[in-house]
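Researcher: First entry.
Model:
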Amino acid sequence: MSMGIGGISAMIDQTSASAAGSKAGALQDKLGSNLANASEEELMSVCKEFEAYFVEQVLKEVEKTIPKEEEEDASMSQLKDYFKEEMIQNFSEQICEQQELGLAQQMYEQMKRNYNL
């Protein structure tokens, strides 16, 4: 069974879209669930996940401002986009682990007040 460049490109697009959608969906499920019975560690974990997701979205928007090369093979472009997504996700997680942005802490304190923890 042989797969052409078009098939590989479609597979990369589908995998990338699926991964991004599942990550956002999982985070939305956690935030939408009843966190009143959550432990402080679980609550902080959800806040940190949201902070990393927020930073990831900011980095993606910043990346859109960078001019693109005009002479680029379509399949190579899609492959670069896939790995760029992975790199942005890793950068956002590292930024949140190494830097004290404070967003997760503020959300945590607000949720503690809201859930009377």
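Researcher: Second entry.
Model:
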Amino acid sequence: MDWVPIVFVTFKLLALGIAMFFAIKWHYDKGDKGDWRSLLRTGGKMAALFVLLLLCVALLTFVVSRMLGLDLSFP
């Protein structure tokens, strides 16, 4: 059971990363052809926003878990 979270989190990050890539590519292909710098800048911003939101969700989960009295210490 210890490997299940590792596999699921890895799969989720991989799936979301691929989905973000294709979403940005689709929007780029749909619009007028801009330069690659703006595409990479937008992709970087989206990746940074995703990581920031992921950290916020993790912090919120930790705070709520502590408020509910759950033991979050490692063995």
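Model: Note on the second entry: DSSP finds two helices and no strands in the chain.
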